[in-house]
Automatic annotation (TrEMBL), chains A, B, C, D:
This is ThuA domain-containing protein. InterPro entries: Class_I_gatase-like (IPR029062), ThuA-like (IPR029010), Trehalose_catabolism_ThuA_prok (IPR009381). Gene3D superfamilies: 3.40.50.880. SUPFAM superfamilies: Class I glutamine amidotransferase-like.
Length: 257, 257, 257, 257
């Protein structure tokens, strides 16, 4: 679709293609969670970020290739990931495929317990371990980088009245951009919004979203996810060439045995 | 102006307001440079990035308030800065005003010899000194972060056949995002594309553009400047509140003398 | 002094020369504070980090040149800075002198309300503003980078039972190394240990230490300050040369008008 | 061993235990390389950094467990890694063991073609691919962070008259600290000194050292390796605790279904 801004030239407006991946396990095995997310966390997120104008599809663990065929991934600008109980059931081949796509420029937004997913661990190079407590406590998420586009439309902080706690030390590489820090009622803090670059791709880890709480209906949480999708879908440069290469300048050398 | 993407909701497309500031001294005092930039470097840049659809105005040193009144700055999304011979003639009051606007979210793109401008030094906190040589040598600018939106539309590198050399050590804070590194024929390297965040604002330093060479007619250079403007105009978060503040949680304390 | 490790060669052990600067105002004007720090905050810190083997001297605002003559600074490896009420009374000339020394390699450890000192603002390029509340509440300081030498000897966190609160947003450049995050009882978080490099020098900002509380007698606080001194005194490279420079390689160029 | 500095207290001086790992393949299969490194690259490095006072041992691919048993690793403060032809022959179990030790605080210095080693790829999360050319050309390595302890004792740059070229894009996470940038005669640049933190451990990648050239006899190269060992052996904090954890503050909550 082409648009013109003011008297400027025509621009191609490209819609952002988002694939929301969910293991879709707790919502089908635990009635309490099924009541919160009757159609699954992926559908709640899809509905929640729908108004932001993305082209959204979903994929789940039990689908062939976990719903992440080469074709699906090649048409995905940003992949959102939610997993918790079934990390080990994700096939290594699919994990390698996702990693390759991220390095080629696909964005990746990892949510909550996705911190221990194979794909996040693989891209971080660390255990991504942390402290946790499921005690329905209050979380207050503070913006510590208001220059970041992921903070658009938020206030200085927002609150979740009942959430699982994640506490430091969070075993990740130091975020290239630290956007949020959480305060927890029980006395902990957590780096809750962490941005990275890997290859041509952008990665954002966002903490909230335990399946026991209706977090993915919260408007600020949805705003952050939508903002993160837009940020991760920003344009990137040309695909690099690797390997043996000819010189661009004449090489003159002195004595070499 | 409102647009719709696919079947999504209507979006407000906001044009980006760019002010190009130029000291406009060498083009009026040196006939050789006047031949290259007869209407000034600012006009060459304005023409060159025009096709990207920005709302562009220019400002120069000799105008009242250097053309940077509170009104102009408050309506500027991104300020582009070129200066060389007249850094000391820029009034401190205007420099402070620009700094304040950057901290409130205005983008700033500093070009070439602007590295020693008062505003860049003030925002960096260092001397911003470097090595230099005006010898019309070849510069090859390599992309070292192809995930960055500022590299959109570029190849793996681009060349300028005749440019001034800038060499390390460049006395700046380590860039938060290092996008380009230059190779020079005379044997030096330089961190040529350096991105920073300060307050709500984004800053990009881009090396090329000595007045002795027709650099601002080069399509890759113009592309980088246009990309930098878009990046620096990305949305930001809410303006922070500072100072004395009431607690958000009840404070209970033990014995305190 | 020369030492040998095992059967290795002799090494020169160089003592670290530390200058502790204090405005020394509240301790002399407020009896309540004088009771906590009868000899001044600088003396409490000097006593507290004494066992770490530094060569320590102190300097205060009312001394000639604020005790920071060229001679003193040239013999200082690391400068510790505490100020609060009298930031504006520090002469710009001395501030410029300190900045120059930091860029030449002197370490700088800025404590608590020193966030609004002229020297810290000048080196950061931002307002360094924040939220605050003096309400004797509990602060829990979490280690978020246990790889950092400044965390040596600490546990996963340490607590101060009564401290002033500092809250985000803290208007600083994103720390190059974020070492500590504080949790406050009243609901805020704060980036409490922030490491930077400027020129050849290293800078560490450490949050705790309001004059109303006996913070500088806390063993973990003293440990952090001592660790920060050692880190800021690590060796650095050669002083750079700036300005016009001869090529290191032969420059051959094509047609240039 | 205990020492006293000046009139300060006694300190425990701990020697740094270094293990130099080499696949030790090209030196035994290619007579031309055997002439340069008759006892292997590991021995050349061991001899070269010997004067810096480390406790050095070596390990090679063909040894049981590649010479990297749990006992050896647990007593290693810093592991130096050289590999090229036999990356795939390194057992995954040993790679996992090294990763775990790095996360627990062991330093890792990866040299030259080690960029494609399993351990470096695993810790980086990327392909670590690059451009290369074996053409005996000149490399000039520029210091771009003279505040870094790894630059101690170096000039502003140093030269290697004949080296293999490595060119950008180098597919690594953006270095947390970028210390060196190489200039190559053939027209490329490369981020040659890259520092990272992972868990409690520090990692340094250093580019030079192709087996075809006598690079590991160069005094500046040896100085960098020795400096990197010291940096990677700096103290770190306490080992974190992960998993389910009790609150440190009383949690009071409102209505929760």
């Amino acid at each position: 679709m082409k648009v013109r801004i003011g008297s400027g030239p025509m621009f191609e407006m490209k819609p952002i293609h988002v694939t929301i991946w969910n293991e879709f396990v707790p919502e089908r095995t635990d009635p309490k969670i099924a009541r919160i997310y009757p159609n699954g966390i992926h559908q709640a997120i899809a509905t929640g970020i729908g108004p932001y104008g993305f082209r959204i599809q979903t994929a789940t663990l039990e689908q062939p290739e976990h719903g992440l065929s080469n074709e699906v991934l090649s048409q995905t600008d940003v992949l959102i990931w939610w997993g918790h109980l079934a990390h080990e059931k994700v096939a290594d081949e699919i994990v390698n495929r996702i990693q390759a796509r991220v390095l080629q420029g696909m964005g990746l937004v990892v949510l909550h317990s996705g911190h221990r997913s194979k794909i996040f661990q693989k891209l971080m190079g660390t255990t991504c371990d942390l402290k946790w407590r499921t005690d329905a406590e209050r979380e207050r998420i503070w913006v510590v980088d208001p220059s970041h586009p992921i903070t658009e439309g938020l206030g200085e902080y927002f609150e979740l009245q009942h959430e699982e706690m994640y506490g430091e030390f969070f075993d990740i590489p130091a975020p290239e951009e630290l956007v949020f820090i959480s305060w927890f009622q029980g006395g902990e803090v957590f780096r809750s919004g962490c941005a990275y670059q890997r290859g041509l791709g952008k990665i954002f880890y966002f903490r909230p979203g335990d399946e026991n709480y209706p977090t993915y209906y919260n408007k600020d949480v949805l705003r952050v996810i939508a903002n993160a999708v837009r940020w991760a879908a920003l344009p990137h440069g040309a695909e690099p060439v690797y390997g043996n290469t000819q010189p661009l300048e004449k090489i003159t050398r002195g004595e070499f045995p």
